[in-house]
Each structure stands twice: as structure tokens, then as C-alpha cells.
Amino acid sequence: MAMLHLLGTGAAFSDGDRTTTMLAVSGPGSTVVIDCGGDVVPRLLAHGLELDSVAALIVTHEHADHVSGFPLMMERLWLAGRTRPLDVYGPPSAIAQVRRLHDSFDTSPWPGYPGVVYHEVDLVEGAPVFVNDDWESVAAPGKHAVPTMGVRIRDRHEGGVMAYSGDTEPAESIAHLASHADVLVHEATGDAPGHSSAVAAARIARRAGARRLVLVHLGPGTGGRAAAARGGSIDASLAHDGQKIPF
Questions:
Q1: Which architecture characterizes domain 3-246 according to CATH?
Q2: How is 41-82 classified by DSSP, letter by letter?
Q3: What is the mean predicted confidence (pLDDT) over 74-80?
């Protein structure tokens, strides 16, 4: 069965037990990481994931709490012995930001450095992202201060589906993306421009017919948000760093 790993569940500023929101999905042969605003590699190791299994990184948008850890991620993968390039997928503006961050460090003296292959994803509903023997994924645009996307990943072996909203206001495009997902991971920063409250996230989950709602991108003092989202038939919970969820 596919596994969702909550490497981090916080907003740009959170309580001390949360780092920035970063996800991974693992299957029989590969792992896909989503966003890298923090120190990804130790989190992968803490989850028992083989670093060489990382087949792709998906970045949802260009903000620092979602991409600023990328150069360190690449350095650590190289030090761990990776030699093949890492495929990175995201909206054009996010790819441009990741490229700038990476290229601000001179990796030319590092023998065997794996390098990066960048893939721009169209900001339209159903845009193809990444596919291999384990996974197929598509994207949809969200509503944020900068171009952003949510991601839907399906386990090609058993059919389980995980959807992630990225940073967004409540958006019909995300409800469509999460249609009948086993798990919808939705941000719940609060009722502010470019973001969603827990109640709004629950509305999107119900509209999508998702089986389970997991709230992430949480700032300080988030204790009441899961209760606020639980009304009706939705199974809603606050995420916590280190959590693993089969789907």
C-alpha cells in the first residue's frame, strides 16, 4: 500500500514542533517529495525512506517556505552518493526560483554531482506532472499571491489517491483535483488572502467527496481547527510532523 509521509506540517512561522509543510509519498520502488522549504533529507531518513528512492521533487510555488531548502537537499543527496540527476517539477515561476537558488552555489568542484532536470508544469486543471511505474500525478491551479498548484498522485499498483492543495484560497479547481481522493491534504493557515481556514478546507473536501481530510500549513496555536472542520461526514484531523498515512 502507498504511504503518505508528513515530513513537515507548519506554515512559514509555526510552533516549535513543526517545520514547513513538506510531503512525500512512498511505494514499492520510488518516493516522490512535494515541496522543500525545510531540511528535507533528515526528515526522509527519519521516516525510514531510502534517499536513492527519490524519483522526483514537485514544488507547488515559489515562496521560501516551499523551496528554500532545495540547494541543501541537493548537497545532502550528493554527499549520500547520488549520481543520477533529480527531476524537479513545478509551475514556471517556481522552477525559475528553484533554479536561481540552486545556481547561487557553485557545485562545479563537486565530483559526481547529480545535477537537476527541470520540468515546467502548465497551470491548468489536469496538467500532467510526473509518471513512473509507481505513480502518476496531475496538477491544478490554486489561488495564492503567486502562481501555485495543487497535486493529485495516484498509486498505480493499488489505485489509492492522495491530493494536496498547496497554498490556496478555497478553490473549485482543488475540489475537482481531489475528487474521491482517499486523502486530501489541505492547507488551513487561516481565513486570509491566499489561504484557507479549516472550515473552508472541510467544505472543499466534502465537495470533492474525499474520504479523509488532513490539515497542514499550520501556524502557532492551532488546537481548535480540527474540531471546526469535523462537522458533517468528513473525517478531519490536524496533521503533525512525522505522521504516516496509508492510502
A1: 4-Layer Sandwich (3.60)
A2: HHHHHHTT--GGGEEEEE----SHHHHTTHHHHHHHHHHTT-
A3: 98
